[in-house]
Design goal:
The chain has 9 helices and 16 strands. α5 crosses α6, α7 packs antiparallel against α8 and α8 packs across α9. The longest helix has 15 residues. It is globular.
Length: 312
């Protein structure tokens, strides 16, 4: 365990690429390039809960200055952001239809290397690749900068063909899985990580690697939470309406971690994550985040209903 002082320490650092997203759906009549990536949604969700946040990321020369100005104005520290002028930023086309998403990679920023990691410290660091931009040795270095290392493996289980079309692929990430404290993914992703189709068995396998908390999100069916030897079902927090699903999972874990580093019960943290996600999907891209009081109100409605032990 690190002995981290209070001075110059962040609550949460997110490592991974920013993205420039072009989102298509029946509810988006005129798609426009939108700031995306876990570094965006995780950071902003945590900021709304008063967490001090930073990012470790890399973008190309095409990354709009207005994005940087907006993030700075939102109190997201960008001292760990590197711009490579001769390169392109990571960019995706996202197409939603009948509740399913098709993802196409348009361009990819250079990978994040060990030498790109500043000597920043944080109570928690969230590893969140979106296109295989982080390696095991980078995760090793991140591990030395925090007491709580969190992982969303989405970028490790993505494969892309010559046209950039994404399909989920098996990932043998034993070295990384053995270093993390908190794991969060979708059900489809945990199957690619573990090779198991039974949710309970897959969660137990992740726990066996060493993760203290395992969360598997299931969309509007809520999430499965495992900690201290117990499985719990946490219901989804329903939004007033659904506009765009992009970033919901990232907002979830950003809010979860903002509460978890304060020593809160993981079940409560999961409810807060669900509440944060419910606000994000009411807008397009990172346009809507609930204020702290609003997020807690939605989370309380779930928490007070009483969470039940899960058979998963």
């Amino acid at each position: 365990m690190l002995c981290l002082g209070e001075e110059d320490m962040f609550d949460l650092i997110t490592a991974g690429h920013f993205a420039i997203d072009l989102i298509f759906s029946q509810k988006i009549a005129f798609p426009q390039p939108t700031l995306g990536g876990p570094t965006t949604y995780v950071s902003l969700a945590a900021r709304k809960l008063d967490a001090k946040v930073s990012v470790i990321s890399k973008v190309g020369g095409d990354f709009p200055n207005e994005y940087i100005e907006w993030l700075n104005a939102s109190s997201v520290d960008l001292s760990g952001l590197k711009r490579v002028e001769a390169a392109s930023s990571t960019s995706f086309i996202l197409k939603y239809k009948n509740g399913r998403r098709r993802l196409q990679l348009r361009s990819r920023a250079p990978p994040i290397l060990q030498e790109d990691i500043p000597n920043l410290r944080a109570r928690a660091i969230h590893v969140a690749p979106i296109a295989n931009e982080l390696s095991s040795d980078v995760v090793d270095k991140l591990r030395t900068l925090t007491d709580i290392l969190s992982l969303d493996p989405q970028g490790f289980v993505r494969g892309f063909n010559e046209k950039g079309n994404m399909r989920l692929t098996r990932w043998e990430g034993h070295q990384i899985l053995g270093k993390i404290d908190i794991y969060k993914s979708s059900f489809d992703e945990i199957k690619m990580v573990t090779g198991l189709t039974d949710l309970r068995s897959a969660i137990e396998k992740i726990h066996d690697y060493g993760a203290k908390v395992v969360i598997v999100t299931k969309g509007m069916k809520g999430s499965a939470l495992f900690f201290e030897g117990r499985f719990q079902d946490v219901p989804a927090c329903w939004p007033r309406f659904v506009q765009d699903l992009t970033g919901a999972g990232d907002a979830f874990i950003g809010a979860f971690l903002a509460e978890y580093i304060r020593g809160k019960d993981p079940a409560w943290c999961t409810c807060v994550g669900s509440a944060a996600a419910s606000f994000v999907i009411e807008g397009v891209g990172p346009a809507v985040f609930g204020e702290k009081k609003e997020t807690y109100m939605r989370a309380t409605r779930i928490y007070e209903k009483g969470l039940k032990l899960s058979t998963v």
